[in-house]
TrEMBL record:
Matching SUPFAM superfamilies: alpha/beta-Hydrolases
Family: Belongs to the AB hydrolase superfamily. Epoxide hydrolase family.
Name of the molecule in the record: AB hydrolase-1 domain-containing protein
Residues covered by the AB hydrolase-1 domain: 26-134
Superkingdom of the organism of origin: Eukaryota
InterPro entries with a match to the protein in the record: AB_hydrolase_1 (IPR000073), AB_hydrolase_fold (IPR029058), Epox_hydrolase-like (IPR000639)
Pfam families: Abhydrolase_1
Alphabetical list of PANTHER family matching this protein: EPOXIDE HYDROLASE
GO MF annotation terms: hydrolase activity
Protein's UniProt keywords contain Hydrolase: yes
Keyword terms, alphabetized: Hydrolase
């Protein structure tokens, strides 16, 4: 059974989906953008069945999530803020070491976490984001910029919010593969405590 807990970590409130026994080794599941910890709801039972405890926090500013929304861009810094959030969340649950799994933006957080807290990282699984040094080398920079257009969009005050709330985005017209689970249905499940 998955439950939602609210914890204070690194000076901010975070919603964390939790499943499994507190005595089991933890797997921390970090979501991508634009989503929340709810994206891991179908994987969490399998993680528990395999003998682990699963935690899926809503990272700061998660769409439809229950964690605090940053007021300034500096409050979204992966190494200075978000990674410390993850460490603080682990502390709140009494977790010294964990398997860290991240997807998309969560994979970038996972890479940084493993680099900054190697003693707390049992292993790292990064989905959809390779090692940061590959991006820093610039070898694929032009191609990657084309694939990351949405990052610029979401950094424009007011425009990102409008795009996320628009019916075009919610209905999956921007990403047709999302039509099966529109944002409004997910939002309703969150409000009803069903996620």
């Amino acid at each position: 059974m998955i439950s939602a807990k609210t914890v204070l970590a690194n000076g901010a409130t975070h919603r964390v989906l939790v499943a499994g026994a507190s005595s089991d080794t933890a797997v921390v599941l970090l979501h991508g953008f634009p989503s929340s910890g709810v994206v891991w709801e179908h994987q969490m039972p399998a993680v528990v069945k395999a003998g682990f405890r699963a935690l899926a926090p809503d990272l700061r500013g998660a769409v439809g999530g229950g964690s605090e929304v940053p007021r300034e861009n500096k409050d979204c810094s992966i190494p200075d803020v978000i990674v410390k959030d993850v460490a603080g969340i682990m502390d709140e649950f009494g977790i010294q070491k964990a398997h860290i799994i991240g997807h998309d933006w969560g994979a970038a957080v996972a890479w940084a976490f493993a680099a900054l807290y190697p003693e707390r990282t049992l292993n790292l699984t990064a989905v959809s984001v390779g090692h940061p040094s590959n991006y820093m080398s610039g070898s694929h920079l032009g191609e990657q910029r084309q694939k990351s257009w949405y990052m610029l969009l979401f950094n424009q005050p007011g425009i990102g919010e409008e795009a996320l709330m628009s019916m075009r985005w919610a209905q999956g017209l921007v990403y047709p593969e999302c039509k099966d689970r529109p944002a409004k249905a997910l939002e309703a499940r969150l409000l009803l405590g069903m996620a």
